[in-house]
Each structure stands twice: as structure tokens, then as C-alpha cells.
Amino acid sequence: MKDGLIVSKIRNGTVIDHIPAGRALAILKILGIKGVEGHRIALVMNVESSKIGRKDIVKIEERKIEEREAELITLIAPEATINIVSDYEVVEKRTQKIPEVVRGILKCTNPSCITNNDPEAVTKFRTRGRKPITLVCEYCETKLTEEEVLRQILQ
Ligand code: CTP
Ligand code: ZN
Q: Do both 85 and 19 map to the same domain?
């Protein structure tokens, strides 16, 4: 189904496409968008996609996505495409890879990990698996599952 049947094209802004179905709200959370900022936003959820079964799409007018935000997005939507739209045209299409190392965003679930005890310590996880996402704490080897990553981001 073409999402155009549900919401119209945007003039200027960002379209995040190919989000796994049901995760659009988590994307808004990552972007810190609560709806009161005044951007015109369209959420398309659970539409058919030829690439990933069912997908969500988030369209935000007059908003750019920072590198760090894009990195976070890959953790819950590894196949997402970030489309930059200018004057109705897609002028840039970014696909991001899950980073090798994720710093300072997620918490280690091991209470005795140094990152939970030294206030100066910054968390650092290595990507061990991409489908589903599995991250491993650099300090204590504790694994973070995709479910846990999603839970922390939605918190
Ligand atoms: N889009 C939009 N407003 C525009 C242009 C594009 O909302 N002015 C949306 C489209 O509806 C689509 C996404 O941005 O969801 C990407 O657009 P486009 O690259 O034209 O679509 P596809 O070629 O189907 O993208 P892909 O190959 O990434 O699936
Ligand atoms: Zn740890």
C-alpha cells in the first residue's frame, strides 16, 4: 500500500521510512517529540511494505535529524531510511548501519558493573549481533538484548 493513500507528501522536512511496525512512537521518543513543539507530524503505522512486511513511517515537517539521533534510530529500526525532503523532493536518502560501538546512551543491566557505580564512567557497548540486536558491555560482558534496548529507549 502506498502511504500516500493515508497521508500526503510533505514539503520540507524528514521522512523516516521502513520502521518495523509498531515502533513509530519509539522513534518520536528518541527525537524528543511530544507533539507540543508545533511541527506538523504524520505517523503511519502498520502499513504493508514490500521490504519488511509491515512498517511504520514518521514524517516531520521542518525538522532535521542529528547524527546521534540517527544512531539511536538504527538500534530500534535497523533498516530505516531517513529521507530529507526539500520542496516536495527527496534530496537525500540516508541508511545507517548499527554502530560498532554505542557510547553513553544505554545502561548496563548488571548492578555491579563499573558503569553503574562510578559516576564518571560512561557506558560502552559493542555490537555482537545485528538481527536481532545484541550488545555486550565492554566492562562486564553483560548482554543487552533487542528487547532490553527497546525497553530502555522507551523508558
Ligand atoms: N515522501 C513524503 N513527502 C515527499 C516525498 C516523499 O512524505 N515530498 C515520503 C514517501 O511517501 C516515502 C518516503 O518519503 O514514504 C520516501 O520517498 P521516495 O524515495 O520517493 O519513495 P521510495 O522510492 O518508495 O523509497 P524507498 O526506495 O526508500 O522505499
Ligand atoms: Zn556492564
A: yes
Which residue lies with its CA nearest to atom 24 of ligand 1? 2
Give me the interface pTM, i.e. the ipTM: 0.95
Average pLDDT over residues 32-46: 92
58: containing domain = 13-94
Q: Which of 65, 49, 69 is nearest to 57 (CA)?
A: 49
For residue 14, report the distance from its CA to the centre of ligand 1, in Å.
Answer: 10
58 and 28 in a common domain:
yes
Q: Whose CA is nearest to atom 23 of ligand 1?
A: 90
State the pTM of this model: 0.86
Residues 127, 74 share a domain: no
Strand order in the sheet with 143-144: 101-103, 124-130, 133-137, 143-144
